[in-house]
Each structure stands twice: as structure tokens, then as C-alpha cells.
Amino acid sequence: MNHKELISAISSKLSISKNEVEQMLDTTISICTDQLKEGITIGFQSFGNFEVRKKEERLSVHPATQIRTLIPPKLVVNFKQSNVLKDKLNEI
Amino acid sequence: MNHKELISAISSKLSISKNEVEQMLDTTISICTDQLKEGITIGFQSFGNFEVRKKEERLSVHPATQIRTLIPPKLVVNFKQSNVLKDKLNEI
User: Fold this and answer.
1) By the CB < 8 Å criterion, does B32 face chain A?
2) How many helices (H) and strands (E) does chain B have?
3) CATH assignment of A46-92, given 3.40.50.1000, 4.10.520.10, 3.90.1150.10, 3.40.640.10?
4) What is the greatest pairwise CA distance in chain A?
């Protein structure tokens, strides 16, 4: 399910125009991105938490050529599902 | 930043009532949860993808008592950040 399909689904469920849904979804994503950029964890009730983690730099060795490359440190977003979501996924 | 703070932030940015924002956020989460339950991957433009992965069952051995416990298989939600988000996080 991509962005557009999600917008259609929300729009038809709430009887709100697709434009309004899109505007709100975009705002949500941009706020989340800004918060994550500042290293702030975001919690979505009964869904999960997003937090930024730093992956340390590491030395990668090419198996065939033995050439070593330094992979620089980078920030990645980590998602941890809530217990509510975990239970919903795993219930029969 | 928790659920309530996020709702306030969206509400003030778009000048929509908190109730409307909350209703839409809840709908978004419930649609996402339903999709993930059916194993469908969800893509958020310029943010990332959510997909369900199965963690296989495994045998855990307690280090002190040596008692073995079978951890049953479970489904977990995996988030993979998009390249856009990655670039935003890592730009200086």
C-alpha cells in the first residue's frame, strides 16, 4: 500500500477530501522528520516509537579484492513496535 | 514527543481542531495496523516503509541455570527509512 492508496483509504473512511488528508499526512511526516533530526523520539499511541540511532563508522573489507573502505558514521531511524501492535499482529 | 504533543503540533500548524487531527491520526494508525496484520507493506512518501517480518522460533538457554526455553515465532514490524529521510538526517 503506497502513499496514495493510504490517502484514499483514510479519505473514504472519514469522508474528508483527499487534499485535506494529504496535507495532514505531509504535515505529520514533516514534523516527525524535524523532530527526528533533532534526535527527539516520537511515540505513536498503540503503534510504536521512532528514535534515531547512530551507526558507528566501520571498516569494510571487499572479499575478493581485499580493498578496505571506511564506511562513515550515519544516523538511522529505528522503529520499535508497541506491545499493543505486537499483540494485534500475533493474535490468531 | 508523544501522541498528544504531536497532535497539538499538527493542529497548530494547520489550524485544524485537535479532535479532527486526533481522529485522522487514529484512523491512519488503525488502517496501517490492519494492513500490516495482513502482511501488506506500507510506504510513506519521503519517510519510509513498514513491513512485517517473521522472527523464527528459537531455543533460549538461561546462562546460570542452563534451563532451555522455546521462544515461539512472532511477527514484528520492521521500518526501513527512505533515502530522502536518510539524507535529511545526515545532512550537516
Assistant:
1) yes
2) 3, 5
3) 4.10.520.10
4) 59
Sign of the Cα pseudo-torsion (A35, A25, A22, A4, in order): positive
| Chain A from 53 to 72: CB within 8 A of any B CB | none
The CA-atom distances, in angstroms, between B48 and each of A37, A65, B44, B80, B86 are: 15, 34, 5, 6, 9
Q: Is the pTM of this model over 0.95?
A: no
Q: C-alpha grid cell for residue B84?
A: 530522502
Interchain CB distance below 8 Å, B28 and A10? yes
ipTM value of the model?
0.80
Per-residue pLDDT of A34-43, as tens digits, reads 999 998 999 9
Asked if the Cβ–Cβ distance from B43 to A81 is below 8 Å, we say no
Distance CA(B90)–CA(A37), nearest Å, equals: 8
The whole-number pLDDT of residue B29 equals 92
Q: What sign does the dihedral B6-B9-B14-B16 (CA atoms) show?
A: positive
The per-residue b/e assignment along A15-52, b for 16 or more CB within 10 angstroms, e otherwise, is ebeeebbbebbbbbbebbbebbeeeeebbbbebbebeb
Q: Which of A1, A16, A22, A55 to mutate to test the interface with B (most CBs of B within 10 A)?
A: A1
